Amino acid sequence: MTTARKISVAALTLGLVAGLAACAPAGSSGGGSDGDAAGADCNVGISMPTRSLERWINDGEGLKEKLEGDDCTVDLQYADNKTDQQISQIQNQVAGGAKILVVAAIDGQTLGPVLEDAASQDVTVIAYDRLINGTEAVDYYATFDNYKVGQLQGEYIEEQLGLADGEKGPFTLEPFAGSPDDNNAGFFFAGAWDVLQPYVESGVLTVPSGKAPADDDGWKAIGILGWGSDDAQAEMDNRLQSFYTGGDTVDVVLSPNDSLALGIEASLDAAGYQAGTDWPIITGQDADVANVKAILADQQSMTVWKDTRELGTQVEAMITAIVAGDEPETNDTDTYDNGVKVVPAYLLDPVVVTKDDVQGTLVDSGFVDASDVGL
Ligand code: BGC
Questions:
Q1: Could you tell me the distance, in angstroms and rounded to a whole number, from the CA of residue 238 to the centre of ligand 1?
Q2: CB 148 less than 6 A from any atom of ligand 1
Q3: Structural domains in the chain plus CATH codes
Q4: CA distance 59 to 81
């Protein structure tokens, strides 16, 4: 980074290297919250969960490119959705000299020890998209408003069925939730369920499978571990075969994201549902290419789009501040309590995309190539 480089050149010239090193900010205490202009080296380890989902590939590569444009040294690793692999990759990044870690955790509970070890070596930790729980060693959190993602899904269903206008149905609903080890998944479900639950209680929405959570933690029992499309498909097959016999059909599926929605859609297709006739309302999140195609083919009703390029820009700004020895900007210091501390967060706004918005929102902004989705 330019500022940091200028500082280190000046430091060398003045022979103050030792002095600056001594007052470099400790990562775990806020990476320069004391306004110390010495800052950290722009040597960044990015740890992403998996290459199997399009969004993480875009997130990781997009952020790496931005940071390299700022002359940072960047090591980007994907952990194949395996926590042990993520831990050893982070260890290697720190051993290799990373001074800032950007981590999208596979399991929000298990990274404490490796990050505490990193913090003891003055590494600053930014939780990326997913909060890291149960440790002091997370300095900042950059994400989209996760509760709002679910709320937008719930409100979309409410509006499509005319529930707020008094439609009485009853409509059949199958709720799905995300991976129980992902801190985001609880926020997504809570956002949607706070909208839908009153209609379940009044009987306007019925849940034939019985998979409606009874309490705040109940979503975990219907969570699809690892967010796999195949597992969502198997679960939907099971629900359709067990609870939709004798001509009953499903009207709505609450899917927290696109990877689950894809599996659910494959299951509906195999069960003989027809797009444009009895195909249910299905929600999603991420605007993955396969799902944008499904939206255009009337096999998915909406997706909640999170412009991951914006998230990258926000993290880049955080890193610029840390390197300059400044306090990164955050806009939420209440919501994300990781059990040990409330992690200062920057929340971005998610956006609903339906068939009508694909061109104007996704294609025109360059997030999706028209040719990739057959436009
Ligand atoms: C992310 C979602 C993503 C899901 C599965 C969540 O933590 O916020 O965007 O769909 O993980 O990878």
A1: 24
A2: no
A3: 9-138+307-349 (3.40.50.2300), 146-305 (3.40.50.2300)
A4: 15
